[in-house]
Each structure stands twice: as C-alpha cells, then as structure tokens.
Amino acid sequence: MKKNYQKIIFLGTLVFVSASLNAQTKDSIKVKAVDEVKITVGSRNKSRVATDTPVPVDVINIGSQSVLSPQTDLNQILNYAAPSFTSNSTTVADGTDHVDPAQLRGLGPDQVLVLLNGKRRHTSSLVNINGSPGRGSVGTDLNAIPAFAIERLEVLRDGASAQYGSDAIAGVINVIMKKNTNAFSAAIMGGGFNSKGANDHTGGWDGEKYQLDLNYGTKIGNNGFVNFTASFLNRNDTRRAKSATGDIFNAYNAIEQRALENGVNISALFGNINNTPNTQQIIDYIHQYAPNVNYFTAAQQADIQSANTITALQNLLKGDVTENELAYRGLTRDDFNMRVGQSRLGSGQFFMNSEFDLSSTVRGYAFGGISYRAGNAAGFYRRPNQNRTSTSIYPNGFLPEIASDVIDLSFAAGFKGKLGNINYDISNTYGSNTFDYTIKNTANASMLYPGKREFNAGGLGFSQNTINADFDTKLDWLKGFNIAFGGEMRFEKYKIENGEEASWALYDINGNIQTPGIDPRLKPTDFFGVYTPPNPNLPIGPNNPGSITSVRPGGAQVFPGFRPENALNKGRHSVAAYVDTELDVTDKWLVSAALRYENYSDFGSTFNYKLATRYKLTDHINLRAAHSTGFRAPSLQQIYFNATATQFVGGTAYEVGTFSNDSDVARILGIPQLKQEESVSYSAGFTAKIPQANLTFTVDGYYIKIKNRVVLTDQFSRPSGTYPAGSDLAKLQTAFDKANANAATFFANAIDTQTKGIEGVISHKARFSQSVALNSDFAVTVSKTNKIGDIHGSDILINAGQINRYYSESSRVYLEEAIPRFKASLNNALEINKFSVLLRNVYFGKVTDPNTMDANGDGIVSGEIINGQAVATEHPVWGGKIITDLSFGYNFNKNFKLTIGANNLFDIYPDKNYGPATVKTPSLDASGNLVYVNTSTIDLSNQNQFVYSRNVSQFGMNGRFLFARVNLTF
Fold it and tell me: Cα separation of 804 and 383, whole Å?
C-alpha cells in the first residue's frame, strides 16, 4: 500500500509542477481567482482582496467543492480543504456523536468565531464532556448550515477579538451564502462505505448516504434577490467492531433463561436478593429449572440441588458459561457487538438569503434558516452478567441507544446605506439551538418489573440575539484611511429541561426514590448482591447503614436523564464598542489598528487591541505581521451545565456528575467561579505572486498565549468513610448521592497554554487552451500546543494531593496531541472540455491516544513523577496516514453533470488499537522513587470492540467511501 501512496503523490506533484511550467500568462477562467475576491472578514475595507491583507485569509469556493468533492457537510469539506482546520466524527461519545467538534490552528472548538454573512453565529447548546478532542468545549455546529447554500468560505487565520469580540482567538470563519438568481439547481447524491472493515470487518457495504440538495434564486425588483436552499439527508450507521470477547453469560443467566422459557421470570421475584419474601420460591425455581441446563455436569447439578440458601447458590452460579449458552440460544459473539462507527442521521434543512431596495438609498437584507436533525447512536453493550442489565426484560442484554432531536434556527435582518460619506449597517441576528434526548432500547435497572424501555431524558437549549450598528468611511489622508466603528449588544440564554422521573431516578425496592443513608437492604441488586451489616462499634444510622454489593444503578442506561435539580434557565447580556482602522501610509505600506471594549453582565469588562501591517517589497511580494490581544468569555454552557452521565474508563462504568461552578460541591472543593480566557498573539509572514506562472505563495508563522484556559477537570471520587453530620465531607457525600454519582468533574480556569505554528499555501491556476484548465493547491500546517506554568488548582485540592486530577495526563493529551500537529494537502482539479477530475491527497499527521498503555512492548507502562505523584505517561501514538480522494465528472450538457468518485480511495484505516495486556504500572516506594511493582490488565479495545481508538482519530475509521452525484441546473 505504501507504493500506492508514493505513486499518487508522485503523480499529483508531477501534474502540479508540469502545470506550473506550462502555464499561460493570462487566466481566462471566468471564476474569480482567490486573490481577486474582495473579502469581508479580517478587514472592513470593502476593496481589500485576500493577498493584500496584513493577516492570512483563505477563500474557499464551496460551489466548486460541492460538485466534485466526496465530502458534502461543511465540517468535512473544511477538514480536507483547509489543513489548519480539523474536525472528525466521534463514536460512543453520547451527544458528541451528533455534533462534530471543529478546531482551527489546534485550539479549541470554542476559540474560533463563526460568522454567517458577516454576522455572529450562535453556538451549539451541547457541551462536549466525553472523551473526544475538544473535551469541555462548546463549538458552533457548522453542519447546521447546508453546504449547498454557501457561495464561499473566508477563513481568517489570526486572532481577531479586537475586531469581532469573544471567541476569535484562533481566527474567524465567515460563511457567505449564495446570491444566485434566475436559476434552479439540484444535486442528488448516493454513496456508501465499500470497505474491508464494513459490517464489523466482514466487508461489503454499510453507512449508505443519500442526499438531495435544491437551490433557487430570483430577483426582487431591479437590484434585489432572494435565494432559497433546501437539503435532505439520510445516513445509515457504520459498524467497525469485531467479535465480542470476554464473559457474557453466567450460570444464573442459564437457569433464568430456562425458567423464562417456561413462563417463570425469576429476576422479577426480587428487588434486593437479600430482602425479599420470595427467597424460598427463588431457590425452588432454581432447583426446578437447573436440570434443564444440559451442559451442567452431574457434580454441578448435585451441588445446586443441595444448596438451600441464596448465598450458597450465589457461589455456585457465578461461573462463566458463555460458549455453551451462546450455542443453546443460537447466538454468536457478534450478536453482542457494539455499534462502533458513524451514527445514524436524518436531516432536513431550509435556508434563505435576500437583499432588496427599501428606497433609492437604503437596502434591506434578511437571511437565515432552520435545520432539523434526528440522530441515533449506541452506547456500550449491557451484557446479561452485569448488574446494570435488567435480564427480567432483556435476557440477552441490550445495546442502549441515544436518539437526538437537534433543531437549529437562525434569522438575521437589517438595513444598510450611506449618510454622506459614512456607510452604515444596522442589524439584528437571532439564533437558537435545542438538543433533546430520547433514550431507546434501554432500562432503568432500579425500576420495579416490568419497567420501561424508552425514556424522555430532557434536553438542552441555547439562544442568542445580537444587535449590531456598524459604520465605516474612507478619508483622503495619505494614500487612504479607512475607519470603521460601531457597537454591539448581545443577549444569551441557556436552559436545561429535566427528563421524566424514570429517566433519572434511582429507586428503592418499593418504587420510591432513594434518599441518602438508605438501608442497603432497600437498594435493588442483581442475584449476586451481598449484604454486610452495620459496624457494631458505631451508632447505627445514616452514617453507618451497612453496605451491599452488586447494587443496580438508577437512571436510563447509557444516558441518565436530566434531574429537576439540573433544570435551569440562565441568561446574560453584553455590550461592546469598537473602532477598526486601516491606513495606506504609502502605496507600499499599510498599517491597521483595532480597539474593542466589551462588558459582560456576569463577569465584567475586557479591553482588547490589534495592530497589523503589510509592506509591499515589490508589486508581487508582501510582508505582513500582526499583534493582538484577545479573550473568550466562558460560555453559559460551561458555567451552568450540570448532569450525571455513565462514562466508561478502561471498560469500567462510572456514574460521573458534572457539577456547575456555583454548586455546593464546587464550593466545598474550593473551585472558583469561571472567568474569561485572555490571549496574546503574534504573527508574521509573506505573500508572493509569480504572474508569469500564475503562482501564489503565502507563508505565515504565529504564536498564541492563552491565560486561564477553561478545561473540564478529571474525575474526583466520592469521599469514602464516615464523617460527622454537617461536616464538609459529609455534605460532599450527600451531594454526590443526590446526583446518583460516584465521581465528579468541573469546569475550571486550570491552565495557561502556548500555541505556535507555521502555515504555508501554494496556489496555481493555469489554462492550457480554451478547453483545458488546471487549478492546484498545496497547503501545509505545523503547530504545537502545550501547557506553560503551574496548574491553577484550588488550595483544598492541592493540599489533598488531587492537583493531578484538576488537569490530568489525559487532559494534557487531549489538549496537546489528540489532533494532527502536522497536516498537508495537495489538490488538483483538472477540466478538459466536458470532463472534470479531482485528485486530492491529504496527509494527516500522527496523534497520541489519551489512554495509557505499554506501547513499546517492554512490559511496563512508563511514568513520571508529576506534582509528587506517580503518573503513567506512556501512550499509544497512531501514525500519520495519506488519504486520497479521486472524482470524475462529465457535463452531458449545460443542465446535467454526473460525478463519480471516492473518498479514501485506498481504504486506509488508522493504526489498530491495543488489546488486553498484563503490565506493570508506576508507583512510588517509601523513599519517593518511581518503581514498577503493581500489575494490572489493560484492554484499550474493550473486549475487541474498539479495533481503532474511539478517543482520537485523524480521519475517522470508516474506510473507503464511493459515491455518485448528479447536478442539475435549469
């Protein structure tokens, strides 16, 4: 396969070089070259073009991309077209399966600002709390905008908070909508993954995708237009697990099944196996139906018949009988596979863009749209031998599903004109995003039989309303002085709606919601629960109730619903004023400066500035540089999100509570209120053109330092032991218990970071004849992010030795190494008469997995002493890969074009994950030295389910995608 890579790179490079050597001086292609497009982001000078700016701006023609490119959603188009941009679908990550985190320059999804037609776009209501790049962040859902509605993208790769406000630390993505008139166009696409890994590695096709896009524009009056876009998508799931390993059935499951076949449901006869009036009946049924298990030996049968207590039967029936029971039930291990891969999705979107005359001097405009998506993703398989599985209704276990309904709504309207020499633009922009959860094919294991299989788990909502007044004018000073100024008011609201009671409740055996200090004998258990009486040396009561094992968890499995205590409706507002100037000092020298003041109702004020310059060494070579300060206000989602969710770490389930910063738990642990992130950035670069060869070069380096970066902490465990009533630790235990959580995470301004990198782009356009044209682009980005200085932990946690959970080793990897730090792309688009060809190679650099493992095979997981503690620091590193896209298009006539092609032509997958291994892990000896004496078993594949890492992936794990697309124009 490596030879194929070399061939394709060689061919692509050969085409690129030959085009450069044979290029004609004049480019007669009708579409404007990138450097000729007047940009609307990064500069408020309306005559500024991309290569003339003091900061880097990429212009991406989505119209041409959407015809030949295998990618159809905005995130993936950018992921392959812009190396500085990264986005990948996640798997088994709860809500993040339905909203892809997107990152620019290796910074967080919430550190890039998105504009639609130059107006601030709202963020998603979802906060990423599971294991994926961008963990703890809230980004803008770019896929809520149909790519078919977009004319072009302008990607500003430089800090711009002084120009545009919060979030623009890494840069700005401005989405420009279509303005076409007197034309109807449609695109019909069908495709699927034809891959060796399809259908749980049996091959064939899966993940079929069908999409219909429609666009129509017409004039309004003499100078106006309105353009409509509708998009419909149906996408099936992909499956990339292998046959499940490990124990599935125990001997009790076997007897339970024989009883069910005869109309007796043994597990429905008890809530707590140690506290039921049906004890003798349960024993009798086990005696009655055990002989029906024909693979039990005679000795086993005799032992079961002679066992007359639950305790005796527990010891006899806990053994593994998986292989025999699979054969009896006519099942295979594949029937217990998880759904690892792309989630199911159906969507419908409708967008509109318009501009029209209100009078001879005033123009109005309106744009926006609605997007509805229904997603379905699955969690970890609940096996019959697990205490969280209600075998009374799922005798073979179950695969719980998270069904999402995501509605994204936006509408902007305004008017613009000219008063004397001053241009003005007054607008109001509204946007909202709701995310509702329905949990299907699941159970609340603590419910009384027969329970439920589907739950309304509640939902999230975020809305934003922005009022802008923008003004600009050009003064005849030196070679031209452009000054822009204006103000903004923004109103934000965030809400959490609780789910139905059964979706979140932890019930006792009488159907009542459990309270702290409950008698353990009232807690539901599976058959193997063992009760331990209270400590006789302490007073019996809430602090000494005794204990019990194999307790059933509450809430809907895979995603416990939002509790009434989680429900909230919070808001804030902000006001801002700015001035943004550009001065052409001479014909060659441009300087610009911007100032912005912003005040938030919840944390105060910020003041930011930006300085930039560009100098023309020649008519074709520009030098440019910029320096700015920036900020990001902590999102309402980060400030107020609170919930309990099931998270799996190393295959073990934890009920993890995310507590808000104003909670009692946060106060007791000394975690402070969130404040804004602050940044300082520097950039420098050059642009060059060689007109004779139709070549354009840009190279830019940058440095970004961020102070008080918001992260989601690692898990803090519920305190164990007994503490005096009213003490902080007792209150902490109560807070954990009320949330049904045994671990807790928080958002905190935990660290300072620095990011540095270099980006380069070479673009070439050539026309060999009236019927032969070639566009080529080579782009590369190299970046590095790392923590600087100490962790900003609370004194309470530092003194308790918990600082490494405040910002853990896995959090470090997610921040610094979980996305490619080196990425390069080579794009060649060739047109020959009616034929079109796209050949694209994208190199996705190596990434590091946040899990620890013996990656070098020496039998130990290497570690370091960090903050006085032994920390495992050896991680798998997944190597870089080249992904090749190839598409062919043919214009049958001016109305009909057919395209066929492939993404990931050579069916490339990430490096395979690590299976089970017995290794030695780091610890400290009595002298504080690092030693390797403790032994544990680590299985990153989770019993053969995650063949490839689910936590990080450069380009996904779905393999080759083949498609056909028909484009119609009338």
Answer: 33
Contact 536, 563 (CB under 8 A): no
Selection from 909, 961, 957, 884 nearest residue 194 by Cα: 961
Alpha-carbon dihedral of residues 418, 419, 423, 427, nearest 10 degrees? -80
Residue carrying the six token digits 């946690």: 797
User: Where would I find the beta strands (DSSP E) of 822-956?
Assistant: 822-832, 835-844, 847-848, 863-866, 869-872, 877-878, 881-893, 896-903, 917-924, 930-938
Question: Which stretch of DSSP H or E encloses residue 258?
Answer: helix 251-260
Residue 372 corresponds to which tokens in the numbers above?
């509805």
Distance in Å from the first CA to the final CA of the chain: 43
User: Of all helices (H) and strands (E), which one includes residue 504?
Assistant: helix 501-504
Helix axes 251-260, 310-317, angle to 10 degrees: 110
pLDDT of residue 29: 27
Contact 285, 277 (CB under 8 A): no
Q: What is the rounded CA–CA span in Å between residue 147 and residue 185?
A: 13
* Angstrom distance (rounded) from CA 274 to CA 110: 50
Q: How far apart are CA 315 and CA 566, in angstroms?
A: 41
Q: Rounded CA gap, 391 and 445, in Å?
A: 9
Alpha-carbon torsion, ordered 716, 719, 720, 721, to 10 deg: 160
Measure the CA angle with vertex 785, ends 782 and 789; round to 5°. Answer: 150
* Rg for the chain, CA atoms, rounded: 30
Phi, psi of 179 (to 5 degrees): -125, 15
Please check whether residue 227 is in contact with residue 183, taking contact to mean a CB–CB distance below 8 angstroms. no
Q: How far is CA 127 from CA 132, 344, 593, 654, in A?
A: 11, 20, 34, 19
The phi, psi pair for 915, rounded to 5°, reads -85, -165
- Residue 289 near residue 540, CB atoms below 8 Å: no
For range 724-731, the mean pLDDT? 75
List pLDDT tens digits, range 650-663: 555 566 788 888 88
Q: Which helix (H) or strand (E) holds 732?
A: helix 728-738
Peptide bond into 56 cis (omega under 30): no
Q: Per DSSP, what are the bridge partners of residue 961?
A: 193, 903
539, two tokens: 């007073």
What phi, psi does 568 have (nearest 5°)? -160, 165
Residue 38: strand pairing partners:
49
**How far is residue 87's CA from residue 64's CA, in Å, rounded to a whole number?**
21
Q: What is the DSSP string of 838-862?
A: EEEEEEE--EE-SS----SSSSB--
- C-alpha 580/C-alpha 610 separation (Å) is 9
What pLDDT sits at residue 655?
Answer: 67
473 and 483 Cβ atoms separated by less than 8 Å: yes
Strand, helix or coil at 702? strand
- Please count the helices (runs of H) and the strands (runs of E) in the chain: 17, 41
Please, which residues have CB within 8 angstroms of residue 850's CB and are 6 or more apart in sequence? 131, 809, 810, 811, 813, 814, 818, 875, 951, 952
Hunting for tokens 């623009």 — which residue is that?
168
CA distance 472 to 485: 6
pLDDT in tens, 540-576: 766 678 889 999 999 999 999 999 999 999 999 999 9
Which residues are within 8 A (CB) of 487 and not within 5 positions of it... i.e. 6 or more apart?
A: 468, 469, 575, 576, 577, 578
Mean pLDDT for the chain overall: 90
Neighbours of 359 (CB within 10 A): 9
Which tokens is 261 given?
Answer: 């076949």
Q: How far apart are CA 458 and CA 419, in angstroms?
A: 50
> Any idea how long the chain is?
970
> What was the pLDDT predicted at 391?
96
Question: Token pair for residue 158?
Answer: 């430089």
DSSP state of 805: H
